[in-house]
Amino acid sequence: MVTVSEHELSEIRGLIEKRSGILFDESRERFFSTRVREHVVAKKLAHGTDLLRLIKNSNVEFDSLLQRLLTQETSFFRYPAVFEALEKRVLPELHMKKFWENPRSLRIWSAGCATGEEPYSVAMTIADALEFADAWNIHILATDVSRDALDHAERGVYEARQLEKLNPKQRELYFTRTNSHYEVKPRLRNMVTFAPMNLAQVVYMGKFDVIFCMNVLIYFSEQRQAQLIQRFHEYLEPGGYLLLGHAETIARAEVSFDMHVYRDSRLYQKPVMARRAAAVGQEKE
After folding, report:
1. Using an 8 Å Cβ cutoff, are 267 and 89 in contact?
2. In whole angstroms, how far apart are CA 76 and each of 130, 161, 170?
3. In 3-state terms, what secondary structure has residue 110?
4. Is the previous residue joined to 103 through a cis bond, with omega within 30 degrees of 0?
5. Is the pLDDT of residue 191 over 90?
6. Considering the chain, what is the average pLDDT of its residues?
């Protein structure tokens, strides 16, 4: 019989939050306890203490448990309005802003990229919408805490049903079909760099024009959410955009964003420095 006590569950929950910043609160209690017990069974352990010992002594085992606990629910173009906003508002704006730069560069971060559908959707949107996209230096950084998910993303192989939201032209241009699977073509794959990253740890990676962090903040405490929003604000270029999930907000973060609504999505834009400086000057008067 497998036994995992409430005390052991609490210890496991605390260890996960300490290492990854991910908080499984009361709203996820049943899900959390069920998944932990499933993991104990899968590892052929008898008690929660055995699992605790395992994940404390091995990063691989800790990642294995975390992989089971993170649902990794994602899909290509999961929120169509967000990608429409990227295509019709954000990219034209960036094109105008960077028109005279040589070389023209574009840096986008997909924070919490799961199995890669989001950053590849961003890459397809850029390739479809940006005039002479091949002449730009485009770098999409895609990060996730789960190494298993990143391995999947780097392989870039998906089942036919996962490409249902793509139109025939996108499937033909950006994927190679092999039996019932589709593999991302090099043109798209070369736009994306995948890297393991724990968002609870501060790692500076330079400035970005756009940051995607869709349905990731919900896994963190309110305090850590505010800290992450502040970091995203710091990492964005003036005039850059932060895109969050529908249930996520910047309300608790003490930073300034201009909010724009595009259909059912909200775009948070970091104010340009000149406008901020002008506003400060007016306040002093």
Report:
1. yes
2. 19, 11, 11
3. strand
4. yes
5. yes
6. 88
Contact present, 92 and 124 (Cβ < 8 Å): no
How many CB atoms lie under 10 A from the CB of residue 212?
A: 25
Q: Is the pLDDT assigned to residue 67 strictly greater than 60?
A: yes
Alpha-carbon dihedral sign for residues 271, 277, 280, 281: negative
Question: Mean pLDDT over residues 139-154, rounded?
Answer: 92
| Angle, vertex CA 164, rays to CA 162 and CA 170, nearest 5 | 100
Q: How far, in Å, are 75, 83, 153, 267 from residue 118 at the CA level?
A: 7, 10, 10, 17
229, 198, 159: which is closest to 66 by C-alpha?
198
User: Could you read off the pLDDT of 27-48 as tens digits, one per residue?
Assistant: 888 889 999 999 999 999 988 9
Axis-axis angle for helices 48-57, 6-20 (nearest 10)? 20
The enclosing H or E element of 243 equals: strand 236-244
SS3 label, residue 3? strand
Q: What fold, for 80-276?
A: Rossmann fold (3.40.50)
Show the tokens assigned to 142: 């895609």
Domain parsing of the chain, residue ranges: 6-69, 80-276
- pLDDT class of 250 with cuts at 50, 70, 90: confident
Our CA angle for 228, 112, 163, nearest 5°, is 150
Cβ atoms of 269 and 239 closer than 8 Å = yes
